[in-house]
Amino acid sequence: MAEYNLTTEIKFLKGVGEKRAKLFSESLSINTISDLLFYFPYKHIDRSVLFKISEIPVTGAFVQFKGKFIDFKTSIAGNRRLLTAKVSDGSATIEVVWFAGHSWIQNTYKVGVEYLFFGKPNVFNRKINFVHPEIEPIENYFTKHNYTFSPVYSIPEKLKKSNISSKTIQSLVEQALEITFVQIRDFYTPDFCKKHNLIPLQDALKNIHFPSSHEILINAERRLKFDELFLLQLDLLRQFKLRKANIDGIRMPVVGNFFNTFYKQNLPFELTGAQKRVVREIFENIKSGEQMNRLLQGDVGSGKTLVALLAALLCADNGYQTCFMAPTEILAKQHFASISKFVSGLGFNVDLLTGSTKKKDRKIIHEKLADGTTHLLIGTHALIEDIVTFDNLGMVIVDEQHRFGVAQRAKLWKKGRQIPHVLVVTATPIPRTLALTLYGDLDISIIDEMPPGRKPIKTVHYYNTKRKKLYEFMKEQIDVGRQVYIVFPLIEESESFDYENLEEGYERTVAYFGKENVVMVHGKMKADEKNAAMQRFISKKAAIMVATTVIEVGVDVPNASIMVIESAERFGLAQLHQLRGRVGRGSEQSFCILLTSYKLSSESRKRINVITSTNDGFIIAEEDLKIRGYGDIDGTRQSGLPFELKIAGVSRDHAILEYARKVANELIEEDPLLEQPQNQKLKQFMQYKLKESTFWGMIS
Questions:
Q1: In principle, which of 139, 146, 580, 674 could form an S-S bond with 679, CB 3.0–4.6 Å?
Q2: Number of CB atoms found within 10 A of residue 636's CB
């Protein structure tokens, strides 16, 4: 291919081809040269130092040295063929080892020729050796291809198995920069860059991969982090401003019979101060005539569903219907059961529509929706079907929004004749900073208070060796009528990890407690099998549920008082907290037991320490950000953000975020539609990035 540009598919790069291009696409979402250039290294290694072989330190760090091959030798160790070579630089001799690629290595590297070696030293039989080091011609140390800081890229297992390494990506990025560098166009003006102390995009992309100094790397990082956060803030603020200015909401000024009767007669318990505050915020929103677009955050068990119901009652008092969309059928049924019980005798009609609703019942529900008989429809993805038509849709409530794609929500949103109010409910606490970054176009309500009378869950950490003690404790609890969840991270055996397996765990639990007392639930089961197992547990016919994280958003069983999380080191903090929230729903003392192996990474240990020291989801969310730093923040991909955070960290780069938000605010105030000549390139770039993100600003 003679002509290359940034949109050229990577299969046309030398050394890629159709097969490798497919792997890059599936594993890293790299399809074009632009995608490749924006796949950033996760660290750089200083390659300015050249060690003598006699002075190589064994510290676990990568080192670089030069030397000549003295000889090559093939041997057998166990079932494996090894190729070893002696390398000398005059100061000492060292051994290099290969487990594969023997013929290619011996044909490529010659005895007596000097090469540049780079790798991590190991000690075997009190001697230092290098396994599969990088080897280059010695000239590379003195040419433009040797960068002081060498990039290291994250490589998924699938690519490693196909012999694609960090070095492969480095080579492809070099090639891509060489053939398309002049085509990299900045979307900021030189004046904008100067004003905000930003280096040009060309320089940033070159130096994020191949910096010649630490200072240059910092400047490249700052420019690219600013871009991600600024473009994200600019889009959210622009959408927010446009929505406020151009989109009329449905005015709902009435607090009528449904709300008042429920509040005075049906309310199961006194609302917390936080719940009352949030209900007031929602009412102020919907009576104003502006379209509500609100994110409702609340920890597990804080009473978000009750607040959502009160919003639906206000909606019905004003003559409108509400649609409540849940991420799973189990959760939809749970909402339907609890809400139907709450509104019993009120004349407030609630229906349930899911994938398993029978054809005859579905037809009746469609008719009731169309003639306005149904006040609140609860369901799953089935609500998106084109045949579902509302008489007067006024509000859309979306539970656990990260489980739905933007296109799905957009389709649901379009079912109203007017633009409905939107309430997005999440049990995943989001730090304020992150909420502003990811949901800057939404108003935010927080239920930061738990209902009185609930005992805090006691969380303890056990090593696997304490399993007998754990089983004895579980038996004591089961004997007095309590129930237990045991959660596993994997369904099938993994060769890569020595972690507990669900099926093995099920067999072990059955062996101790008896088959009639244990049910198993996992994502690969058929829906009817899963529901049958769930029902056995809910109806107390089984005392123990062995499961994968399908219960993370799922059943509400007040009688369950113990959550055992196997291989807890495998779970993120947010997941651990969500799983723990499945217990502690009754009046009895509840427990969460984290089981791990003795081999814990420092990050795993930090997570375990955080989760055992607090039950506060917002503190946990803040700590989670600190531990994970930057990269793929939970929810950014799933929520449909047009500007993915690849390098910026909301917590770590807080100062850049605040500055980017300030600059975005100033620009939107000055030029809301980006019509001024100096903003045309920026506008075009944003339109290109946003073309597949319709409705984002309106639906969270």
A1: 674
A2: 20
CB atoms within 10 A of CB 228: 22
Distance CA(23)–CA(28), nearest Å, equals 8
Q: Helices 617-628 and 573-580 sit at what angle, rounded to 10 degrees?
A: 160
CA separation (Å) from 210 to 141, 174, 213?
A: 14, 9, 9
Q: How far is CA 486 from CA 429, 535, 565, in A?
A: 24, 17, 6
Strand 293-298 with 443-447, pairing: parallel
Compute how many other C-beta atoms are within 10 angstroms of the C-beta atom of residue 586. 15
Q: Phi, psi at residue 601, to the nearest 5°?
A: -75, 165
More confident residue, 653 or 207: 207
Q: Which residue has the tokens 């290359």?
A: 4
**Structure tokens, 531:** 């529901």
Q: For the sheet with 544-547, list strands across it.
A: 458-463, 591-596, 560-565, 483-487, 544-547, 518-521
Neighbours of 80 (CB within 10 A): 9
Classified as helix, coil or strand, 595 is: strand
**103 — phi, psi (to 5°)?**
-60, -45
pTM score over 0.90? no
Exposure of 539 by Cβ count < 10 A (0-12 exposed, 13-18 middle, 19+ buried)? Answer: exposed
E strand or H helix at 123: strand 121-124
**Distance between CA atoms of residues 340 and 347, nearest Å:** 11
CA angle 438, 440, 441 (to 5 degrees): 115
Determine the straight-line distance between the first and last CA of the chain, rounded to whole angstroms. 42
Structure tokens belonging to residue 18 = 């159709």
Say if CB 619 and CB 592 are below 8 A apart.
no
C-alpha span between 247 and 418 (Å, rounded): 10
Is it the case that residue 692 has pLDDT exceeding 50? no
Beta bridge partners of 458: 591
Position 453 pLDDT exceeds 80: no
User: What single string gives the DSSP state of each residue in 258-284?
Assistant: HHHHIIIII-SSPPPHHHHHHHHHHHH
Tokens representing residue 188 in the block: 């900021």
- Inter-axis angle of helices 304-317 and 329-342, to 10 degrees? 60
Phi first, then psi: give them for residue 622, nearest 5 degrees.
Answer: -65, -45
**173 with 211: CB under 8 angstroms?**
no
Going from the C-alpha of 419 to that of each of 84, 120, 401, 412, 585, the distances in angstroms are 71, 60, 19, 11, 36
Contacts of 187 (CB under 8 A, 6+ apart): 201, 681, 682, 684, 685
Q: Alpha-carbon Rg of the chain, whole angstroms?
A: 30
Chain length of the chain? 700
Q: How far apart are CA 117 and CA 422, in angstroms?
A: 59
In a 13 Å sphere around the CA of 467, the CA atoms on its Cβ side amount to 13
Q: Which residues pair with 461 in a beta bridge?
A: 594
- Taking only the tens place, the pLDDT of each residue in 496-522 is 333 457 888 899 999 999 999 999 988
Q: What is the pLDDT of residue 273?
A: 94
Residues 215 and 199: their CA atoms lie apart, in Å, by: 12
Q: How far apart are CA 464 and CA 470, in angstroms?
A: 10
Q: What is the pLDDT of residue 88?
A: 94
CA 390 – CA 321 distance, rounded (Å): 8
Work out the number of other CB atoms within 10 angstroms of the CB of residue 637.
Answer: 13
Q: Is the pLDDT of residue 446 over 80?
A: yes
HEC assignment per residue over 15-76 = CCHHHHHHHHHHHHCCCEHHHHHCCCCCEEEECCCCECHHHCCCCCCCEEEEEEEEEEEEEE
**Domains and their CATH numbers in the chain:** 1-47+151-181 (1.10.150), 48-146 (2.40.50.140), 257-447 (3.40.50.300), 458-614 (3.40.50.300)
